[in-house]
Amino acid sequence: MTNQRLSPGDTAPAFTLPDADGKEVSLADYRGRKVIVYFYPAASTPGCTKQACDFRDNLAELNEAGIDVLGVSPDKPAKLAKFRDAEGLTFPLLSDPERAVLTAWGAFGEKTMYGKTVTGVIRSTFLVDEQGKIEVAQYNVRATGHVAKLRRDLSV
Length: 156
Fold this sequence. Notes:
single chain, globular
């Protein structure tokens, strides 16, 4: 199973997913602003917690630069609500249990974990521009230090 990966200039695949409170959030809601869409394997795991907290801690600067943040995982809304509340996360966490959005964005498929090939969520981050086009597409990102690197790359 090969993944269709997104590249800068591609139109970001549209989606509408429930957030931690079950409220529908669409990518289209962010038209006219830049938005970071990041995909992570599982709420409340060490790497995903580190990454989410880094986004939380840098959210004010990102928002000031006109960039919103959305986190997407296969977790159900109830698990996302627990994660959000435990970590004080202040940006939407979206639930994609069918993995349809993950797959559309190339963030679900074969990956290497501990030397084995497994099928799962590929930790990925995208920057979508004001017109809904992919500006930055990063696959297999590291949970730690990723947000700092992203800010450097975006000069935020």
